[in-house]
Amino acid sequence: MTVEIDLTLNGEERTFETERSDSLLDVLRKNGYTGAKRGCDTGNCGFCTVTVDGESAMSCIKPVGTIDGATVETIESLGTQGDLHPVQSAFVDNAALQCGFCIPGMIMRSRDFLADNPDPDREEIRTALGDNLCRCTGYEKILDAVEDAAERMDGGAVAADGGRPVDGSCSDCGCGGER
Question: In Å, what is the CA distance from 10 to each residue of 14, 37, 138, 139, 169?
């Protein structure tokens, strides 16, 4: 049976015609929002993580009947290639991505977590990301990236070129900002 749902999706009012049996992930992917990935379809991997009404949610297990009128944000809303969100920049600069399949979900959950806890310790980060799996990394670089993102979102410089802070200073490697 076909139903209509209304959402605020990435800041834009949208109406979607969908099957009553569809999940939020189905709706997103059928309509060109491919950042949320289909992994387990059981809510166990976190690849499909989006933000629904300000909270991280596994879109693969979110029935369309529960999202009518909701505000949904996907990875597509965060930044652009030329203007990355601080969490995205931190993931790039800390080499916290390999195949990239889990990264949209990791970034969305990290962004939501940091909004609630702007100064986490490493164990809090590990716990917050516990519902998001990565099959390629040992998680250490992901944890490093979230720690870095917390500093960036707290007013620290945001690197936009693979590691050198945007203000040109580069005290970590000793290159004097010339690399």
Answer: 10, 17, 31, 28, 34
